[in-house]
Amino acid sequence: MKKRYSFLGIIAAMTLTTTSFAQWQNKSFTHQGNTRQYRVYQSPNYNASNPASMVITLHGLGDNMTNFSGIGMNTIADTANIIVVVPQAFTDALAGTAWNTGVGYMGYFPNAAIDDVHFINTIIDSVEANYAINPNRVYACGFSMGGFMTNRLAVELNQRITAFASVSGTFGLGLTDYAPDNNVSIAHFHGTIDGTVPFAGNASGIGADSLVNFWISNDQCDITPQHIVIPDSQNDGYTVDHYIYTNGQENSEMEFFKVTGADHVWLTAANDISYTPEIWKFFNKHQVLLTAGIEEADETDVFTVYPNPASDQLNLVCTDANQKAQISLTDLTGKLVLSTPVQFADGHASASLNGLNMTAGVYLLKVNTGNQESIQRVIIE
Q: Is 2 a member of any domain?
């Protein structure tokens, strides 16, 4: 007999039980007429001269940002130079806190009028405005409905986010656009006996295998994966098969963790693998934003820029402490709006944007030393 799930019936299952940690800041702003919230964790080792990664973590249906802060990404942040961001889903009248993911029940789709993709994009803008963030190292992951939201972001916000990881959440069948305009590096984790988001899919979302095949096809990865059997060391009743699909376009890849015997759970150090460090391991391999038509900086580049978005000044950091460079700023039509020489002193330089009368939007910053050239995307407010 096929199981049916009401929203009220699956809220408890889609809520992750975690332990809360201190040293977080709660933030809020008005977004499209609604008060929206998110949390930020800043490592005590954060240093603006060394731009950090940003990891966005998305909670499940009925959960909240405070509870989901406890998955342990902040512990990794303390040594890995990460700013951790935990957005709060808006409250739907029937379903509770829910992302607009295309997941529905009997024709009802929670928060269908809420633009959560734009909400998360706005959070990225805000965090980049307040912290030195490497724009090539912005990542997103999520559990359950947060996993569904992660896959939606992979389709619609891959020009801002470098890599993705979804846990027990695929594509909601209410989505009509499955056409990413870029290659996407993504990992997926799913239990084979998941009773909330079934491994094989149901009337709300596609199955895990279908999701994996979608991303393999999108990225044009090799169809034969590297297969790693994770040692069954914890006697937890689960076994983990790790499939790695490589050689995608622009070095994109798809990784799949198939957890035989697992229900709707987030695995921890008590299991054969722990999802949080495994997700960070995947993210840390991907340090180049795959943006079609724009040559982005890669991991060999020696320049970073902050704040991003910027308004009146660009600050540059260079690993070569003292050198001259020519910087130029162009809009996406190719119009040159700024060209000026800069002198790095102790690895730092700046350029004023005052008086340029620039329209808010996305620009390309080119830094040329004569021997090396770097191009990075910046947002001007």
A: no
